[in-house]
Specification:
single chain; 268 residues; mainly alpha; two-stranded antiparallel ribbon; 14 helices; 3% strand
Amino acid sequence: MKNRILFVLLCLIGMSMYSVPAFSWGQEGHRVIAKIAYDNLTPKARKSVDKILGKRGMIYWSNWADEIKSDNIYPQSIKDGWHYQNLESGLSDSAIVAMVMDCPKVNGRLFSVHDSLVYNMAAEKVYASNRDHTLRFIVHLSGDLYCPMHMGRKEDLGGNLIPMEWFGKPTNLHEVWDDKLIESQGYSYSEYAQIIEDTYAPLKREIEQRSEAQLLLDNYHFTESIYAYQQVWDGNTYHYIYTWHELMEKQLYVAGIRLAKLLNEMFK
């Protein structure tokens, strides 16, 4: 009987590793994005954001939307899939752009919820007592938009069901992109944010000028490339880091700059 109970427990643990959606970008990733955004706010926007969330609060609260998954507030954010928009493989560019513009409420609601929160906040259709929670969601979900595996495939839960080994330890494709790649660089969030800003600053103007649809289309193509690489990857973790860390850093920068642009326009 004891052996049978142990076997069931081990099975449940194994299932939980691959069936429960992982957090987006991980704690460090969201802080990096928020720090980049905060550094690029106008003085007026920064003052407004600080008034709502506290000084540098958008950094400190950047992971709140993930942390409340263990609470009973905003259960719809989990039930309705606010953090992801799973897409099928092989979609045309026009189909992706149409989804971004029309914000379908299927296979996750990241596109539609993000747009709705931004619209309500900008139009001041949010009660004063709830402005801080709305802004916390906007800060967090703005990062999720540019995390490749949050536009992954429904059948594998955005890479959660694709097992991998990372330096000999079991993990999955989603967790690699949420945490492992970022952690492999060995920086604090503030150090990494500064390094990324210094490296990718020449792209700032281009990122600000491109449309959200164009940038999300890029993210979809990045996701497709990540899936394709799984078929040829030799299993060497160092090779994986070398192949993908620059794209990962660029997406963190894109997310930070677009969040800054959004808040600068919202609080101008």
